[in-house]
Amino acid sequence: MMIMKKMSYVVLCAGLLLGASGAQAQLRVEITGIGSNQIPVAIANFANESVAPQSLSGIIKADLARSGVFKIIDGAEMSETAPVSYDQWKSRGADALAAGSVQAMADGRLDVRYKLYDTVKSAQLSSMNNAAAPQFNRLLAHKIADDIYEKLTGTKGAFATRIAYVTQSGREYRLEVADADGEGIQVALRSNEPIISPSWSPDGTKVAYVSFEKKKPIVYVQNLVTRQRTIVSNEKGSNSAPSWSPDGTRLAVALSRDGHTQVYTVNADGSGLRRVSNSSGIDTEPQFSADGQSIYFTSDRSGGPQIYRMSTSGGDAKRVTFGGSYNISPRISSDGKTLAYISRRDGNFQLYALDLASGQELRLSDTANDESPSFSPNGKYIMYATESGRRKSLAVVSVDGRVKQRLTTQAGNIKEPTWGPFMK
């Protein structure tokens, strides 16, 4: 079956690349741990891929290896049109084979083609044909890796998504956007004052964040293509912790305008401010549920910080976390089944995941100063900020805790990660 995908994501990236400041040093990715049952897949070197700025097959291999799900078997150069010897690849231990080619077109674009084969069933599983300018070479490779991931696991791949985070270097703070593998970094905002709590819009075109550039915390929404910024909340006191509703029309925020911090909702253009929580304690860090009908938030109403859930219209709140006496920073998976959060136990702040149906809790990190968890859009991984050797870095862990990655940079501390959505 031929897959012909529109490159709307390329259009977004083009706007971001043209509008952003110069790129920074790339993030370094270190991988530890593998999945419990790796799928052996052969990735052939794409025919004529030397015409591309970077090796597509190399990017695909790196993506799949980073997931921890696949055992990569190298293959010699092979076009997608070449005959496939299924027995030969099976004898090498490959359950699947990906092959492709790259052609330079007269208009300067690259025509990238690929096919995926099931060597066990001796059948073709998928194919793709896309053409784009050379600067989108990495994106095409990520999309192919996504297709392989989905066809072989049944779960949508997230390699072609993007992440946002804050880098602090000296007195400068930068809100940066990068590919999910840490490449292609672009600067969305520079400031001499702190930037915190970035949050992607569901369509991936905007990021909400808190900036202290006016000497107080104010919530902004920034369009990543046009770079236009909108002040969403500049109330008296603290304006913090923005998060988007699933339909992208509203944000939940934590405001101290009436004294102590409570949860509010506000339209994405800054209109329609409405108070949702009403307690005598501190209610903060709101996050919409996957269906948009509820809000998870952190509250100390029971004495210590715990995570609660209430309707978006307000009313009674139900406590969600009971393990440990200090649980903060709730994040919900896209299917609404798993809650990630930071829990303090034995003096360590570590990442946990809670199965909301069974109530089973799983510690996912072995570090001591974790913060700011964020799910990948397919719900299979969680990115978070941590600390090692007095330097802040980003880490990624699979929801079963088996696969771990560390993203580091030589230029300052990186923190406050948020994983962007699938692009349509």
UniProtKB/TrEMBL annotation:
Residues 27-125 form the TolB N-terminal domain. Its main location: periplasm. Transmembrane segments: none annotated. Gene3D superfamilies: TolB, C-terminal domain, TolB, N-terminal domain. It comes from the Bacteria. Residues 1-25 form the signal peptide. It holds the Pfam family PD40. GO terms for cellular component: periplasmic space. Belongs to the TolB family. The Tol-Pal system is composed of five core proteins: the inner membrane proteins TolA, TolQ and TolR, the periplasmic protein TolB and the outer membrane protein Pal. They form a network linking the inner and outer membranes and the peptidoglycan layer. Part of the Tol-Pal system, which plays a role in outer membrane invagination during cell division and is important for maintaining outer membrane integrity. This is Tol-Pal system protein TolB.
